[in-house]
């Protein structure tokens, strides 16, 4: 494998190389001046890309909770911070797709993009950003682990779909781990705003679950469009709605917007948290199912809590340690059906030219 580039500090996206060449993939990296590809060939390569993409996504999302907290602590209004993040990231990605003729401007105006944006971006991150004014970043990360459970509940009781028994058991095991991980953080004298923030994060996970399930239908409907373009369009819609909410409800102090902490938070969340992390997430949904990529919510809280220990000197008790191990066990149980399907046959090849 030969890399013909001096450096790369931009976005890494994993896309199918061509729909008529199975198991051939590109690792695409874009910066302001570089665009290169690393070809992967062979049946095993597709499985490896899914695993690498999943682990990389987990690592990125474990740091975004702390990055959000840093930006908010710097004085940036939460809704405006979220809106700028997703609109700018979506605009850059969508422009790339249009320039490369992988999408058309008309895609942005489809109602499916608006509905996806309401679920995956607006509802999920409006609640999360507001809550992180009061809720520690590690706690927010742990509460986000209720997402897969919400997906299964919606699929089972609203959509009347038969849930895979191992996925359901894995979710239950993971939720038990979440409560064990979170238990030492709660006291009887919890601040009201902290409690409201925790409840709002769970409400946001209902939006997240609904958007995740709906996004699978959108990918199937627009099967000739790259999932990266679909993700970019929905991020732009969600970002616009968040900025509108900010202009109506928040008092904006523009001086705080240009502080080093705020700028650093923007750049990290836009490039890694949104452009890279969410594109990987959307790609994994298209290749597996809504549950498998959502299991990052059982892995990333562990890393997020460790970041809190290292940078904020938060205590980590033995109860939390048991909870972390339980979460990992739940993740393994949930992932088994998908991993078995990859080992039995080739990775699912979508019609997403890139």
UniProtKB/TrEMBL annotation:
Give the source's domain of life in one word: Bacteria
Topology of this chain in the membrane = Multi-pass membrane protein
Q: Where does it sit, as one GO cellular component term?
A: plasma membrane
- One Pfam family this chain carries? EamA
Domain EamA as annotated: residue spans:
51-182, 196-335
Q: Could you list the residue ranges that cross the membrane? A: 47-72, 78-99, 111-131, 137-159, 166-186, 192-213, 225-245, 265-284, 291-312, 318-339
Report what the protein is called: Threonine/homoserine efflux transporter RhtA
Species of origin reads: Neobacillus bataviensis
């Amino acid at each position: 494998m030969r890399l013909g580039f001096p450096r790369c500090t931009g976005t890494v996206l994993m896309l199918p190389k061509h729909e008529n060449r199975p198991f051939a993939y590109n690792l695409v990296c874009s910066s302001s001046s570089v665009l290169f590809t690393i070809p992967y060939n062979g049946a095993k390569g597709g499985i490896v890309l899914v695993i690498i993409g999943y682990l990389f996504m987990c690592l990125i999302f474990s740091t975004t909770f702390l990055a959000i907290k840093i930006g908010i602590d710097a004085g940036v209004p939460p809704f405006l911070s979220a809106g700028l993040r997703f609109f700018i990231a979506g605009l850059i990605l969508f422009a790339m797709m249009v320039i490369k003729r992988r999408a058309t401007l008309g895609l942005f105006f489809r109602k499916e993009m608006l509905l996806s944006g309401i679920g995956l971006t607006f509802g999920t991150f409006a609640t999360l950003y507001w809550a992180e004014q009061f809720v520690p970043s590690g706690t927010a990360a742990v509460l986000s682990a209720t997402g897969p459970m919400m997906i299964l509940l919606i699929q089972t009781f609203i959509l009347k779909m038969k849930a895979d028994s191992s996925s359901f058991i894995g979710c239950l095991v993971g939720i038990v781990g979440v409560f064990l991980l979170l238990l030492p953080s709660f006291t009887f004298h919890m601040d009201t705003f902290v409690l409201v923030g925790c409840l709002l994060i769970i409400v946001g996970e209902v939006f997240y679950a609904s958007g995740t399930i709906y996004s699978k239908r959108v990918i199937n409907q627009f099967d000739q469009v790259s999932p990266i373009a679909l993700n970019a369009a929905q991020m732009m819609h969600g970002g616009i709605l968040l900025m509108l909410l900010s202009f109506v409800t928040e008092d904006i102090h523009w001086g705080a917007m240009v502080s080093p902490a705020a700028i650093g938070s923007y750049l990290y969340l836009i490039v890694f948290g949104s452009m890279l992390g969410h594109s990987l997430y959307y790609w994994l949904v298209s290749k597996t199912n809504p549950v498998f990529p959502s299991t990052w919510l059982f892995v990333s809280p562990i890393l997020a809590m460790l970041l809190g220990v290292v940078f904020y000197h938060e205590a980590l008790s033995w109860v939390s340690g048991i909870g972390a191990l339980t979460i990992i066990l739940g993740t393994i149980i949930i992932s088994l059906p998908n991993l078995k399907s990859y080992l039995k046959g080739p990775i699912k090849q979508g019609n997403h030219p890139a």
